[in-house]
Amino acid sequence: MSPLLNATDETTWFGEIARLAEGWGFDQVLLGMLPRPGFRFEGAYIRSNYAPSWRRTYDAEGLVHIAPTVEHCATRSLPLIWSPDIFTTDPQQSMYEEACSHGLRAGVTLPIHGPNQEAGMLCFVNDSHPGGAFWQHINDVLPNLVLLRDVVVDTSQRYLSEHTRSLMPRLTPRENEVLQWTARGKSTWEISHILSCSEAAVDFHMKNVRTKFGVNSRRAAAVIATQMGLIDPN
C-alpha cells in the first residue's frame, strides 16, 4: 500500500485505491463520506469508478434514501455482503436490477465511522453471481479490504477537508455573532441589546443564516453550525 500512502494528489490517491481493489477481484469501487454530522447526503464526498450513467440515475432518483447499504452503514460497523436478499422492498429490487445492468451485481460494503465523526462507506463491487464461490472469495480477501478501508480513512483527510471547506456556509461576522448568541439560548431582544442593534436587524441576520443553512428555524441553524464546527455554543 506504499503508493497509496505516498500519493501526492487526489487523482493518484484514488487511482491507487482502485488498483488495489482490482488486484483483489473488484473492478468497481466507491468511497462515500459525510465529513461531519449535519451534512446532507447531497454534500457527501464521493469518489468512484462506477459507470457515469449509473451515478446519474442514482442521484436523479434519490436512491441514496432507499439503498440498503446506506441504511446499514448508518447504524452498523460490520461489513455488508451484497446479495439479492438484502434488497427487500420493490423499489430496492428495481434498484438492484438496474445496478446489475451496470456491472454492480456482487460486492461488499464496509461502513466508515471515522475519528472525526466522518460517516460513510467503502464499496468493492464486481459482476460475479452471488453464491458460494463469491462468498469464499470474500472470506479470503476481507482482511485486506478492511485494512484498506482504514488506510483510506486516514489518507483521505486532506481531500475531505478541502471538500468540507467548499460546502461550509459563508457567514458574515455579524451573522456569526447572532448565531453564536442564538446557540447560547439568547432571545432576539437579548441579542439586540448585546450587539447594540435593533431586533429587526437581528431578525434580518437570522433570516440570512436560515437561508444559508436551508432550514426554517434558528435553533436548527444553530445545531447544524455547532455540528459543523462553525460556532462554539459554550
What does this structure look like?
The chain has 234 residues and is α+β, with helices and mostly antiparallel strands. It has two domains: 2-165, Transcription factor LuxR-like, autoinducer-binding domain (Beta-Lactamase), CATH 3.30.450.80; 171-228, Arc Repressor Mutant, subunit A. Helix content is 53%, strand content 12%. It contains eleven helices and five strands, in the order H-H-E-E-H-H-E-H-E-E-H-H-H-H-H-H. The chain has helices spanning 2-5, 10-23, 52-60, 68-75, 90-100, 132-155, 157-167, 173-183, 188-194, 199-213, 218-228; strands spanning 28-34, 45-48, 80-81, 106-113, 119-126. It has a five-stranded antiparallel sheet, sandwiched between helices. Strand 4 (106-113) and strand 5 (119-126) form a beta hairpin. The model has no long low-confidence stretch (mean pLDDT 90).
Main beta-sheet annotation: 5 strands, antiparallel
CATH topology group of the largest domain: Beta-Lactamase
The name of the CATH superfamily of the largest domain reads Transcription factor LuxR-like, autoinducer-binding domain
The helix/strand series, from N terminus to C terminus, equals HHEEHHEHEEHHHHHH
Give the structural class.
alpha+beta
Summary?
The protein has 234 residues and is of the alpha+beta class. The chain has two domains: 164 residues, Beta-Lactamase, CATH 3.30.450.80; 58 residues, Arc Repressor Mutant, subunit A. It contains eleven helices and five strands; from the N terminus they run H-H-E-E-H-H-E-H-E-E-H-H-H-H-H-H.
